[in-house]
Amino acid sequence: MAEGGGPGGESLLFLTDEQLRKGIEAMFFAYRGFTADPDRILQEYGYGRAHHRAIHFINRSPGTTVNNLLSILGVTKQSLNRVLRALIEDGLVESVVGTRDKRERHLYLTEAGATLERELSDAQRARMRAAYRQAGPEAVTGFRTVLEAMMDPELHRRFVALKEN
Amino acid sequence: MAEGGGPGGESLLFLTDEQLRKGIEAMFFAYRGFTADPDRILQEYGYGRAHHRAIHFINRSPGTTVNNLLSILGVTKQSLNRVLRALIEDGLVESVVGTRDKRERHLYLTEAGATLERELSDAQRARMRAAYRQAGPEAVTGFRTVLEAMMDPELHRRFVALKEN
DNA sequence: AGTTTAAGTCAGCCTTGTTGACATTCCAAG
DNA sequence: CTTGGAATGTCAACAAGGCTGACTTAAACT
To answer: Is A144 on the interface with B (CB under 8 A)?
Structure first.
């Protein structure tokens, strides 16, 4: 399994089990930091990460359909429905019957929803910005490159599609 | 909020809200990939991510105490206890009363536990290795730099301490 | 007309987190 | 030696947020 800088060739030290384990643990700890700030804010409103994710992607693709959201989030419709129902009842999300296809519901953030979205993403971006600034542009490029290579191919396809939106 | 390459100075394009948002979404999608393989294996054994985390850190620091593990994992003792109890009952983890301080329990993986640990970390490392190889050594350095900058200071301290173990 | 699709709903289950209360054990300080 | 506090464990109850399965409604497609 180990893959250290053997006699063979170019330094592949970055692929040793030890290096890989450090990367794995870094992902674990960093993800905790990544979600910490929004989690604190959400708690004040009685929401969880699931609500955050829904709000994020509705803000990002206003008018998206429920099915669309389902495939991006990778959860069941029952799970998403519970979250959406709360957000709609609380007046943060609006559900609009489709005009072309009346079976579809198009989702939009209300003013209140957009306000919460801004609060959440401001906090998360602040953390990200600090990390990016501290690490520098080259590190950021590498960061993004590795993250993209780590995604499931299907999710990466989706991610790339999102970018060009 | 936006911070684009203003008139001021060196290109800070990598700090625009748009770039930050892409980074946030990349973290979200990449973390899914990161946990996907172990999750599949765990399901076969009727375990969840919480069990994986416990097994990982016990393997990494054999003989660690429960309190130690608690502060690394960041959960309550009740939560961890439920997980540990299952692992001990199933014969994957051994709990040894401390010799110096008999209140403490030192945790070790059994043979069976080490086997599962290997299966899990082989899968996770394979994903990591593929991503690292695809991205290249420089990207990996940047990846690690940004992740470390993203951690809470307290967690980063812990992470650094773990490395030199 | 019949089938498929989008969405929603109800019921129930599991994992994994949380609090709070309480028992046990045992080190260490008075 | 006694007592206070620390480390551990356990019980009970609860919540979020996943899941499956079954079923309805409405609209669209064929």
So the answer is: yes
